[in-house]
Amino acid sequence: MKYLFSGLIFLSLLACEQKPRTLFTTLSASESGVRFRNTVTENDSFNLVDYYYVYNGGGVAVGDLDNDNLPDLYFTGNQVGDRMYRNTTKPGADHPTFEDVTTQAGLKNGGWSTGVTMADVNADGLLDIYVCKSGNYAGNRRKNLLYINKGNFRFEESAERYGLADTSYTNQAVFFDYDKDGDLDVYLLTSTNLIRNPNQVTPVIADGSGLANDKLFRNDSGTDGPRFTEVTKPAGILHDGFGLGLTIADFNGDGWEDIYVANDFLANDFLYLNKQNGTFSEVGKTYFKHHSQFSMGCDAADINNDGLTDLVVADMLPADNEQRKKMAGPANYQQFESTIQQGYHPQFMRNMVQINGGKAPDGRMVFSEIGQFAGVSATDWSWSPLLADLDNDGWRDLVITNGYLRDITDLDFVSFNNSFARDGNRTPEEINQYLRQGAPKMPSIKKANRFFRNNRDLTFADMTVDWFGTETSLSNGSAYADLDRDGDLDLIVNNINQDAYILQNNTANHHYLQLKLSGPAQNRFGLGAEVTVFGNGLTQTYHHTVTRGFQSSSDYLIHFGLGDAKTVDSLTVIWPDGKTQTLRKPAIDRVLTLDYQQAQKTVRKSEKPQPTLLADVTQASGLQFVHQEESYLDYNQEPLLPHKFSQQGPKLAVGDVNGDGLEDVFVGGSFRHYGKLLIQQPSGTFIQKSYTDESRPKDEEDVGELLFDADGDGDNDLYIVSGSNEYYDGSEYYQDRLYLNDGKGNFTPATDRLPAIRHSGSCVRAVDIDQDGDLDLFRGGRLKALQYPLPGESYLLINEGGRFRDATAERAPNLRNVGMVTDAIWADIDRDSWPDLLVVGELMPITVFKNNRGTLTPLAVDALKDSDGFWNCIRSGDFDHDGDLDFVVGNLGLNSRYQMSPDQPMRVYAGDYDGNGRIDAIASYYLDGTEYPIASRDELGRQLPLIKKQFTNYAQYAQARLTDLLPPERQKASTVLRACQQQSVWLENTGNGFRLKPLPAPAQWAPIQDFLVDDVDQDGHLDILAVGNAYDVESVAGQYDALTGLVLKGDGKGNFRPIFFPQSGFLADGDCKSIVGLRSGRKRLVLVAANQGVLKIYSDQKR
């Protein structure tokens, strides 16, 4: 027995030694002294029916309430009382400890507490506590509470006296000095419990009359102390929403604090921009391209250390396939279009990472949303995102709490309830009672909170297991603070039906700097100050606000991680009134106090415009061309399309059409809208001109254009490719069109010189393929209309005296069905003086055809065998000065819900699976090594009704692998296309092959639709201008819109450095489809065309 006992001890010690140590240690209640548990129990008053925020949980506030330099804690409870804890940690202690001082503090428990924040409201140097109330109660039980700190952990509830006993359904508050009068004002974040269907599409309410309009209170301090006056409407806080997230930051860098509000349900998020006169302007639509759909918490901070304020907003997209399929209903394209028409901004269900790109010439800040590229878009039912340097390396990491008490989005639950409700014999009360009884039977969505390390390249690494572990929870509000003052940030998390987390940070061997601000008389803690630390090659900025995440506020002590840096060059504080203070070579690994009284008055310098490579000259050009598109919903015909094919234009073509020696432009049109000629004038301006008789209705979609000499008379004729999928394959409206030029810019229809082409196309490219002195054509086939993903027919058209003959069968038989072509280029890749053809497209590899003296044969290239992608464009240039042509190819990019590789590609299986004579397309993706169908059960069921018989409920379908839908034998009988490369690349021509090399990361933020290759900066090396995005994507995945126009500066060695618009002057956001360059005197002009957008013109500044 003695040996057995000894062996057990040894095994136990061995197990302890083998247990990996995480960055954070979860302290038990007995270790920390924090015994708070937010217990939520459904009852007749608090349930999903009577209070739909019953499962949102509580918050936590952190701050030094007794000025002993240790942060104390306040937790809010829903059906349990709030609790306050005094920090009793001793110097050198193994972990932080706390003492419950709730009774001593005199808290008034009762009601349903939500958000909490600490601020020195009465400017006496002690932090006070403001608690928000909500719940299914009458107004008098929803009064917010203000605990004025009397010292020694004694508080006096004074909300009525201060004018802050608001009775709205309030979720959070933030204190800030919006009018720069020196004292702290307050913004209240509200929702309502009086609207029973908050997702119903109704007109936007923007006049302050909404039931969930937030509130703004101005601090009118007098001799008897602060008194808050509501100024909501006069200040311009007018938009109705269901606010869950709230934070303050200076988003446009003008020195005035702005307000970001994250809204649940249908309402868009709001960005209230401070107009510096006591009012705000809501600019969310102009600053951001889209928002989260069900926005929860949010945080604003500088993610990439470029000095600009970025933003993270949490949503509820599940990370795993099963949970996604259980909650993913049909893509409601009509509703999406309806919300846009009603004035809402696009919204998509996933976490958002909005990266601040800087200020546009019109004064707006331009943000790029890259949450999917960053790797943090799907973290389940998420609540509190916090940006904080958790490992002290100088870069802000991201932690997100998640969990939900009842899985009420489970579609079997929803469907069953809907069926019950549709029974005509049920009264509304019977239906509600059924829901009250059903919801508590649903399981919880319990997941581990997610931890992400900043990779310093705008991506994050999932460190959940290494930093935290695998423990699941129902976590809501969270905050960060250095609880034990050991130089790293600990975390505090409020959980439902589980003890609150006190997470001790175990970071070691990294330096830090912490700052305590001693502010002016009415803002003693320096809220609103801007702090910048310079050192170790990094510039870190911090805007001093504590209300962050969800229903919570973090500590007032400002924390900077320094990594292995042993010194800091300097730190600068800009106080809210503009005074500044700079410390040179401050001491590190300690807390420094910065006193406002030592700050110097400075004049804010207006930034001088810096010279840029390009300048927007659209207005000066005289052009006012706006592309138009008639509404057409492709998904009504083909529900499983990944994107529309009906809005691919406009494309641009360049050539001198009137023989005056100036290059002109043709811009393509669309269904019912004719394209236009843009005739360049000697002054550099343009005159818009029609190219044909516009009296007849136009039925074609222009998708590709070319100005070239078709008939050998020395002038540029016009070829227009017809495309889209609005007609069946074989329609006359897919016939391409040819117009002959009289040499003066007047065009005559000559389509009879073309063969009959009745298939949807994409592009046309000219070259003398057979060296007979005239220009022949490659015409790319886009798809077999209404039979996605079957390819359209591509053509090799041989010029025979100005008439074009289809010579594909005899000269290029492999070209006919090469794929869903999007673009092509003629180039002599092997320097044999015969132009070869490179073709790219959707779900196809980069394909090379060698020109064998007028005939084209496929060329096998090892480097391209796994190059199948969503290619959009290809252009050429000698990027490495080795004398041959390299290529740059635009692809989908990495900012996508789906990640692809040769081993785990995205596939599309096509066949007539239900025997109705029409092609069905089933797309698949890999997750954790398993291939799953992409479409939800409802989406797939619209195309294949038999699916709902095979999988009789959502739970069954959620577990279905691709092989459960398509067994191996059906897969073999299918047409199978794949994508295994999604990065945009440049192809290095090695002389005997190619190497694929990815373009820099910003070029992967969105699909690139077109390139312009030119030496923009005149340094002798070719540069690349890239434009793109895609607004035609199905509404579940959501539009791609992060690209704002990009200059890739080449060094002549095949390396490219991204230059963004503040330095390049090239801002091309929107749904950009085409870019061209042309000469204008000594200048070089750049034109960019966008779908349903303004045609923009830029002029170079170097020539």
UniProtKB/TrEMBL annotation:
UniProt keyword terms in alphabetical order: Signal
Domain of life: Bacteria
Ranges of residues in domain ASPIC/UnbV: 526-593
Name of a matching Pfam family: UnbV_ASPIC
SUPFAM superfamilies: Integrin alpha N-terminal domain
UniProt-listed InterPro entries: Crtac1, FG-GAP, Integrin_alpha_N, UnbV_ASPIC
Protein name: VCBS repeat protein
Organism phylogeny: Bacteria, Pseudomonadati, Bacteroidota, Cytophagia, Cytophagales
